[in-house]
Amino acid sequence: YPWRHTPETQLSEFNLTEIEAMLGSYTKVLFVRDPFQRLISTFMQGMGSSPSFSSFVQDILASGQHNASVAWKPLVSLCRPCLIQYDYVVMFGFLRQELGHLLRRAGLPVDSLLPEFTDTQVRWTYRWLSEQMFSELSLQQKKQLSHFYHRDLAAFPFSSSFLSD
């Protein structure tokens, strides 16, 4: 359906037959990241106007899921993994390994296309940063965040997420 496809076209603008035809003709890849790490990244990039991480989280919780920015909205509500059969789910923190596999499956040369990733360093840094940021939150905020992201935590294996507890 290229005549109706523009960069701004939302999938919801097509009828069910068109959606099934389009999704069946693409290789669908979903990149997922621990929701707590997404929050930290968004805060560190200055996308919130709050002076502290705790107040940033409080602003997010007060706005609710329906008014949430794409930067911190739960992935399940953005990507609909229960409705769309993704061919690959790539976890942040394992990018080099998973992208290499994905490129090989697509028949593309792996070495010339993959940038250098430092997954181990990234995981260690985010672990340390997560501990610092998580300690700023009240028990109530931690519980509310876990509830806010409960569908993401159930859908994806974020076993080391601070929100999983």
From TrEMBL:
Subcellular localization: Golgi apparatus membrane
Stored Pfam families: Sulfotransfer_2 (PF03567)
EC assignment: 2.8.2.-
This protein's record includes keyword Transferase: yes
Record's keyword annotation contains Ribosomal protein: no
Biological processes per GO annotation: carbohydrate biosynthetic process; dermatan sulfate proteoglycan metabolic process
Membrane disposition: Single-pass type II membrane protein
Keywords on record: Carbohydrate metabolism, Glycoprotein, Golgi apparatus, Membrane, Signal-anchor, Transferase, Transmembrane, Transmembrane helix
UniProt family annotation: Belongs to the sulfotransferase 2 family.
Name of this chain's protein: Carbohydrate sulfotransferase
Gene that this polypeptide is encoded by: Chst9_0
